[in-house]
């Protein structure tokens, strides 16, 4: 770490259409607001350039993908340089003909790409048909070095896997970041919706606790109509949040509106927590071989 405190920001955004320029300008305005509040590091949500196109399987949606570098990385790199910030972005990457990834790209106070992470865990559920679009990542669980420290950047479905968070922490990640696009089936009961949100937030707070690092989560908000007739669409539940190294909620957005979060993190406290809760000291790595198996028969 290069500083004892870091002010981090989160942008929670609604997306109305696939007009990238309009969506980028909305992000840029919100990034500027957070930068004016002193945020040194800002996280945008998953696939913030367009609608969440994975509600169905449509080969035309591949036209939304971009190479790296490309128009999106040029725009957001310039934004990071303008505001002198570390910026964590998310895009639909066209790596090659017929090869696409869900990719987070980090800029460190300049137009240059500091690093990228390709989403490793790819879901395939009703309304979330990501396996049709994304090849699993091959960048591994490696933190990205920046001027504010090592960033453990993961993406959405990765957030349900303690192994991913652990491996990032083991490689020295100072903070964990999760750009996210998750929401409810509008036909679910209020009770079921509450259970789903509770599970989502709890497991990420658990990653903070188990690894003694802050967790920063940006989720999208708003309702997005499904292109499939008679499909209910997705009500993205927002509620982006920032948690401290004991899983404590430091800031949380509302469920139904665009919103910014800004929190100053005391990284010396993170170090103190690691000293009094020495999970890494007491791990029984001699007994964990079976974790690399799919199942124990």
TrEMBL record:
CN hydrolase domain ranges (all copies): 6-267
UniProt-listed SUPFAM superfamilies: Carbon-nitrogen hydrolase
An example molecular function term from Gene Ontology annotations: N-carbamoylputrescine amidase activity
Keywords: Acyltransferase, Hydrolase, Transferase
InterPro entries reported in the protein's UniProt record: Aliph_Amidase/BUP (IPR050345), C-N_Hydrolase (IPR003010), C-N_Hydrolase_sf (IPR036526)
Highest rank taxon of the organism: Bacteria
Example of a GO biological process term: putrescine biosynthetic process from arginine
Alphabetical list of Pfam families matching this protein: CN_hydrolase
Entry protein name: Apolipoprotein acyltransferase
Organism: Alteromonas halophila
């Amino acid at each position: 770490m290069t500083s004892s405190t870091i002010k981090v920001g989160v942008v929670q955004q609604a997306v109305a259409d696939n007009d990238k320029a309009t969506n980028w300008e909305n992000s840029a305005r919100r990034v500027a607001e957070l930068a004016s509040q002193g945020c040194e590091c800002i996280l945008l949500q998953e696939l913030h350039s367009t609608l969440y196109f994975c509600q169905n399987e449509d080969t035309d949606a591949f036209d939304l993908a971009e190479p790296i570098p490309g128009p999106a990385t040029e725009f957001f790199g310039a934004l990071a340089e303008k505001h002198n910030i570390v910026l964590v972005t998310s895009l639909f990457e066209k790596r090659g003909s017929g090869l696409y990834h869900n990719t987070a790209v980090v800029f460190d106070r300049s137009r240059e790409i500091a690093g990228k992470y390709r989403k490793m865990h790819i879901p395939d559920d009703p309304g979330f048909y990501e396996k049709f679009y994304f090849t699993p990542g091959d960048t591994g669980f490696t933190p990205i070095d920046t001027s504010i420290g090592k960033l453990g950047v993961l993406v959405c479905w990765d957030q349900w896997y303690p192994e991913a968070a652990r491996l990032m922490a083991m490689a020295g990640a100072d903070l964990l970041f999760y750009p996210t696009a998750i929401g409810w089936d509008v036909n679910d009961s209020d009770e079921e919706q509450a259970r789903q949100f509770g599970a989502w937030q709890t497991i990420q707070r658990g990653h903070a606790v188990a690894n003694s690092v802050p967790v920063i989560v940006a989720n999208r908000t708003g309702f997005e109509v499904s292109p499939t007739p008679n499909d209910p669409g997705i009500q993205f539940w927002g509620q982006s949040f920032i948690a401290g190294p004991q899983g404590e909620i430091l800031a949380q957005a509302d469920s139904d509106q665009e919103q910014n979060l800004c929190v100053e993190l005391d990284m010396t406290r993170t170090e103190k927590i690691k000293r009094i809760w020495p999970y890494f000291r007491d791990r029984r790595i001699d007994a964990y071989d079976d974790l690399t198996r799919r199942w124990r028969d």
